[in-house]
Automatic annotation (TrEMBL):
Keywords: Membrane, Mitochondrion, Mitochondrion inner membrane, Repeat, Transmembrane, Transmembrane helix, Transport. This is Solute carrier family 25 member 48. InterPro entries: MCP, MCP_dom_sf, MCP_transmembrane, Mitochondrial_Carrier. It is found in: Mitochondrion inner membrane. GO terms for cellular component: mitochondrial inner membrane. Belongs to the mitochondrial carrier (TC 2.A.29) family. Solcar repeats lie at residues 3-86, 101-205, 214-301. GO terms for molecular function: transmembrane transporter activity. The keyword Ribosomal protein does not apply. The keyword Transferase does not apply. It is a multi-pass membrane protein. It comes from Pan paniscus. The gene is SLC25A48.
Length: 311
């Protein structure tokens, strides 16, 4: 087989769809905790969302990421796998061989995947967060006005993903779809390094030497642990990204990444940057386990292999 392989993209699409279905309810909780007001801790947030909006509140805004994150994940996994394979083969000078992967190959491939992911993922994340946050009461404290709450019964700002996109483009231009992209870049480049690298090494460590590839159980465990590590460490910049992207539903508070960090720190202290870290790590495990398992098993089916092949 040549160095560029399309099946990595197809398998990434399936893995992405599986991860969205598994992880979206906790993703809604995470977004409300980070960018919302008055939710307290994770459990009180879950209870409040359920009481106000029933179980459907947890799946608010899922249709758009289900359609788009599958494509986004397809590109991320395809870019990572093909870049890593290209680097390894270029280093060894044997285009048709499967040389061993080095840490530097994995690091560079993860960084490339992180940069590409922001180009595709920033608008997806923005739409998802805007739809998740539009039933959240916002208080305009900065302007010295009385606290005002937008009741869930009022007309929401957006009727759905398409209306959300058109409203943002009309009000802010195309650049509005990339609000928070710089924070996302600072989150995703190191985030993907701490995602793919632990997965590769953990899956190889768990797999006995006699086996040609990791078992589905090893993939599930290594993928879940990699997700928990990656999402846990990415939380501070994820908080900044969520706040920047939620900003603008009803009012604009932040001028950019540094302004968001400064305002958040001044008002809520250092602990604000670790808000949602528990739900991020807990959600990261099943989401990433489903993603890697969906990726590896579909790749195995596409290639007709009997052993799972790591990305």
């Amino acid at each position: 087989m040549g160095s560029f392989q399309l099946e990595d993209f197809a398998a990434g699409w399936i893995g992405g769809a599986a991860s969205v279905i598994v992880g979206h309810p906790l993703d809604t909780v995470k977004t409300r905790l980070q960018a919302g007001i008055g939710y307290g801790n994770t459990l009180s947030c879950i209870r409040m969302v359920y009481r106000r909006e029933s179980v459907f509140g947890f799946f608010k805004g899922m249709s758009f990421p289900l359609a788009s994150i599958a494509v986004y994940n397809s590109v991320v996994f395809g870019v990572f796998s093909n870049t890593q394979r290209f680097l390894s083969q270029h280093r060894c000078g044997e285009p048709e061989a499967s040389p061993p992967r080095t840490l530097s190959d994995l690091l560079l491939a993860s960084m490339v995947a992180g940069v590409v992911s922001v180009g595709l993922g920033a608008p997806v994340d923005l739409i998802k967060i805007r739809l998740q946050m539009q039933t959240q009461p916002f208080r305009d404290a900065n302007l010295g006005l009385k606290s005002r709450a937008v009741a869930p019964a009022e007309q929401p700002a957006y009727q759905g993903p398409v209306h959300c996109i058109t409203t943002i483009v009309r009000n802010e231009g195309l650049v509005g779809l990339y609000r928070g992209a710089s924070a996302m870049l600072l989150r995703d480049v190191p985030g993907y390094c701490l995602y793919f690298i632990p997965y590769v090494f953990l899956s190889e460590w768990i797999t006995p030497e006699a086996c040609t590839g990791p078992s589905p159980c090893a993939v599930w465990l290594a993928g879940g642990m990699a997700g928990a590590i990656s999402w846990g460490t990415a939380t501070p910049m994820d908080v900044v990204k969520s706040r920047l992207q939620a900003d603008g539903v009803y009012l604009n508070k932040y001028k950019g990444v540094l302004d968001c960090i400064s305002q958040s720190y001044q008002k809520e202290g250092l602990k604000v940057f670790f808000r949602g870290i528990t739900v991020n790590a807990v959600r990261g495990f099943p989401m990433s386990a489903a993603m890697f398992l969906g990726y590896e098993l579909s790749l195995q089916a596409i290639r007709g292999d009997h052993a799972v092949t790591s990305p």
